[in-house]
Amino acid sequence: MNGATQAIRGIFFDLIDDPWKHSGHESRAARFLPDGLLVVKDGIIADFGPFDEVSPRHPGIAVTHIPDRLILPGFIDGHIHFPQVRVLGAYGNQLLDWLQKWIFPEELKYADREYAREAAGRFFDALLAGGTTTCQAFTTSSPVSTEEFFAEAARRNMRVIAGLTGIDRFAPEDFLITPEAFYAESKRLIGEYHRKGRNLYAITPRFAVGCTTEMMEACSRLKKEYPDCWINTHISENPSEIRTARQEYPDCTDYTQVHEKHGLLGPKFTAGHGVWLSDDEMRRFSRAGAAVSFCPLSNLFLGSGLFRLGRAKDPANPVRLSLGTDMGGGNSFSLIRAMEEAYKVGMCNNTMLDGSVNPREQDLAEAERNKLSPYRAFYLGTLGGAHSLYLDDVLGNFDKGKEADFVVLDWNAGQLAMAWRQSLAVPGGAPANVDEAAQLLFGIMAVGDDRNVDETWIAGARAHKRTPS
Amino acid sequence: MNGATQAIRGIFFDLIDDPWKHSGHESRAARFLPDGLLVVKDGIIADFGPFDEVSPRHPGIAVTHIPDRLILPGFIDGHIHFPQVRVLGAYGNQLLDWLQKWIFPEELKYADREYAREAAGRFFDALLAGGTTTCQAFTTSSPVSTEEFFAEAARRNMRVIAGLTGIDRFAPEDFLITPEAFYAESKRLIGEYHRKGRNLYAITPRFAVGCTTEMMEACSRLKKEYPDCWINTHISENPSEIRTARQEYPDCTDYTQVHEKHGLLGPKFTAGHGVWLSDDEMRRFSRAGAAVSFCPLSNLFLGSGLFRLGRAKDPANPVRLSLGTDMGGGNSFSLIRAMEEAYKVGMCNNTMLDGSVNPREQDLAEAERNKLSPYRAFYLGTLGGAHSLYLDDVLGNFDKGKEADFVVLDWNAGQLAMAWRQSLAVPGGAPANVDEAAQLLFGIMAVGDDRNVDETWIAGARAHKRTPS
């Protein structure tokens, strides 16, 4: 942690509530300070508010002024694959073929410590360049990759969740790990890394299709022994995968039941994708306090399908949601790009939900919830992600006592057309109120990318400054 | 045109045939020169081939060497809206609402000559930054916007197609133009601009829903009087729009028939989108020699739906296709980004066509045609676009006698993760054969954007050099 007390002055925007709870008045879920001051002590937010109010409370404090930028909480990536950094955006197949052809061979290399270490450096560099300050990551079935992941995260002082990634079937022989070895190595790694610095451990069955009952039982035992640990997996990404899950777990009526049966579905459980979850499965996620990580870059890139965002945000049974890039199935490290694609998924869903194609599919309330306003998008990428991961006590916005991870956004950067577009949203040149700030943020998510991330700060220290490239 | 004779040496990749005709052997449709020489005289390709063969034929010629880059024909955008440069990526609604809220008010400003002139400068700058050297553009119903568009294109010596854009209903009063005024102004503009320099004129009924029968008849008369002119319009973008078209043209069995009835469907006719075209409509497009411009950025951004690429490429009835950004419905000027989204649309289609959801929808042949390999993607963006616009005699590849518009691609630029990814595709550091070149190109379309466009050349002169931003 950065030991000194210091302050950052600038234009701040964060979410203080779920904007879906404020339909029609979403700005009530946001906090906007056109001239704010963030006071950080030992990496923790010690004070926050309008400059004129906060400044007198801290006479003589060193102030870093960051003008002409929007400062937001750091982005949280709920679902990403560390060992896929080099194969992001690989050509050609749906999930199961793609895994065999591109992913497994690359991930095998991460048993080599040097390769894994180099990759970890590149991985975290790319995260920071995209404005991501926290991620929940898959590693491989080799403990080496998990060790190097946590070691690099610790060097950078980043809040991360990861764990040895178990798979004991449907992959090449040398890619598999036995349930016994997975159990023993997971125990060792939990002891070594969980809650050491900012590292957090997730018991990680890769996906139920790739896990035998014995592997799921090993996870179940681990969760009982270490109830403080997270659980991270995949669910219902692709129709063929779901059929295989049904075949392999004939005693379960659906994919979700595999996790219920093993006592895993509950708080701190996240499953990536959930594209094909039924209404009933979503209700059970909601009641259990379990989360889905919505990965639109990947769902489009692999053609998995359109996640039913509006259904998941049913106010009667809301599912905890994060946004995930799912890099390398997702073709970018950028949560901003993930927001763009999430918006598109919502819009495509709504052309069906408006009833113009099939009147029986009309559901205008669900359609309204599919509309990814900037308030909703940046909620998913910050406080919402933190809430889904049960980390909203330490991350997600600028509340006092939280960890001071944040991003500094340049709303005019990116493709050449950006600046003129943004000038239409803020006639005064800078956002004068929360709506103007939100319009700039929509410009960033609709037209922008990692170029809009000018700086990324970890625990009060600048960890990334953009070099135009 | 650039009067001097000169030569460019570098790594060249272009398409010489439609790769869909070479399924399984798509590289046969491509031409790859790891060390090539392009000789340009008066803006026209005078010679092209391997450096060792071509160079001795031109002793003493000035050679510009561009190493470590892939040189491709300039990109062709088949569908873009000049007066939407400032509202690209606008928030919130499906087609018809979005037009009323964002588009019409902005387009109205283009009746002001100064505003239109400034916008034209920005528009062409953004095109060139994305590697686009030719576009077919909509303007507005004010002749001023068409004049300023052609004037700016002429200053830049770019091959463009555009025309006064007719709409006489379903828009604010001051946005409309009467069929009589549209007819008279179109005649005048054709006389003034068509085939002057590189400018080409398209008779442009905005979309049949916005055009009365009288407006369509004005277009019909214009096409008879000026058969050399192009026709540019929209079709079947959105289900609600199609229903409205059916209501407004009760004597037509489908949307396509509106154009058939007015004698417009034929060579040099392009309709943007075609998301919801029936199989029968596609067959009629194919037989007529008419084209569709596939606009995946827009179709996802507005939620219009998934274009059936594999159906349009049915070998029995192939539809001429270009790629379009449809900027501002599309949220980028970049054809590279359009290729990314086109790939995703194909992949999403295929999760239905593999029969895993509904066995009755299984069509593996169509699914194969949906797969947007780099050969297919860059064909659509270059030679295929030229073919669809009946410009393949002058544009689309490096054949002798064609116009020397090209882009210089840096395969390592873009988000931080790009270079390491690309190093996996080309172990030697540069592409040694056509397949390696294609793999780099897939990396660009899957992970890249306008940052990969290092230079853009128009008629043998460099018109854009990337400034890292």
Structure description:
2 copies of one chain form a homodimer. Chain A is globular. Chain A is built from 17 helices and 16 strands. The first copy, chain A, is of the alpha/beta class and 469 residues long. In chain A, strands 5, 6, 7, 8, 9, 10, 11, 12 and 13 form a 9-stranded parallel β-sheet that branches. Chains A and B meet through helix 3, helix 7, helix 12, helix 16 and helix 17 of A and helix 3, helix 7, helix 12, helix 16 and helix 17 of B. Chains A, B: Catalyzes the hydrolytic deamination of guanine, producing xanthine and ammonia.
In a nutshell, what does this entry contain?
2 copies of one chain form a homodimer. Chain A is α/β, with parallel strands linked by helices and 469 residues long.
The share of residues in extended strands of chain A comes to: 15-25%
Mean pLDDT over all positions of chain A:
96
| Secondary structure tally, helices of chain A | 17
The CATH class of the largest domain in chain A turns out to be Alpha Beta
Q: Helix share of residues of chain A?
A: 25-40%
The number of strands of chain A is 16
Main β sheet profile of chain A: 9 strands, parallel
**Principal-axes shape call of chain A:** globular
Distance between the termini of chain A: 30 Å
CATH domain fold name of the largest domain in chain A: TIM Barrel
Report the oligomer: homodimer
CATH architecture of the largest domain in chain A: Alpha-Beta Barrel
Instruction: Give the full name of the CATH homologous superfamily of the largest domain in chain A.
Output: Metal-dependent hydrolases
Alpha-beta classification of chain A: alpha/beta
**Largest chain-chain contact?**
A-B, 66 and 67 residues
Radius of gyration of chain A: 21 Å
What ranges of chain A have pLDDT less than 50 throughout 5 or more consecutive residues? none
